[in-house]
Amino acid sequence: MGALDLLEYLRATGFALALTTDGGIKVSPASALAEDVRQAIRAHRQSLLALLDAEEEATKGAQSEVQEPDPPGMAARFERLVMFGWDEAQARALAERLNSDASMGDDRVACAADCLHYCPGHCANHRRAGLTDPAVGSDLASLPQRCPGFLAVR
Ligand code: SF4
């Protein structure tokens, strides 16, 4: 499991990660971490720090201006959608539509295909996104939209 997979896994299983002022990582609730997950966090500490730092920088930028989305290519979108439970036909159709729209200048993105904050069934950045609840159903997760909380996966 790479650092990005680990980050997504932790968020999907209800953990919150944040940078600390002394350059560390705070994982909450720490008491719920299994020993093997603690070891994985230690092993990927530098990469996790870099990912969290990149997220923080992107979020700061989004506060003053609408972030320019940088959608991934169709293959990457397709792989993510399949990973998150879309069947291959649905994933291919959605990835093709998103890329076709993007090629015509449409800068909208879809949570499941494009955003680092998407975890199966919920958004890990829902407050910034303007959602009152972290739950994100499959309809919303596949809906092209512009979102102030968006962070491109690539
Ligand atoms: S931050 Fe916005 S685009 Fe990203 S998963 Fe949440 S709702 Fe979707």
In short:
This protein is mainly alpha-helical and 154 residues long.
Characterize the structure shown.
The protein is mostly helical and 154 residues long. It folds into 2 domains: 3-64, no CATH class; 74-141, no CATH class. The protein contains 8 helices and 4 strands. The protein has helices spanning 3-12, 35-43, 45-64, 74-83, 88-103, 111-114, 126-129, 138-141, and strands spanning 16-19, 25-28, 118-119, 122-123. The strands form 2 sheets. The chain has a two-stranded antiparallel sheet with strand order 1-2. Strand 1 (16-19) and strand 2 (25-28) form a beta hairpin. The protein is globular, with a radius of gyration of 16 Å. The relative contact order is 0.14. The model has no long low-confidence stretch (mean pLDDT 87). It binds iron/sulfur cluster.
Give the CA-based shape: globular
Number of strands: 4
**Parts with pLDDT < 50 across at least 5 consecutive residues:** none
What structural class is derived from the secondary structure elements?
A: mainly alpha
**How large is the share of residues in beta strands?**
5-15%
**Distance linking N and C termini:** 18 Å
Total domains, how many?
Answer: 2
Helicity, as a percent range: 40-55%
Helices, by number, come to 8
Q: Helix and strand succession? A: HEEHHHHHEEHH
Bound compounds, please? iron/sulfur cluster
Mean pLDDT over the residues: 87
Order of the strands making up the biggest sheet: 1-2
Q: Using only CA atoms, what is the Rg? A: 16 Å
Q: What does the largest sheet look like?
A: 2 strands, antiparallel
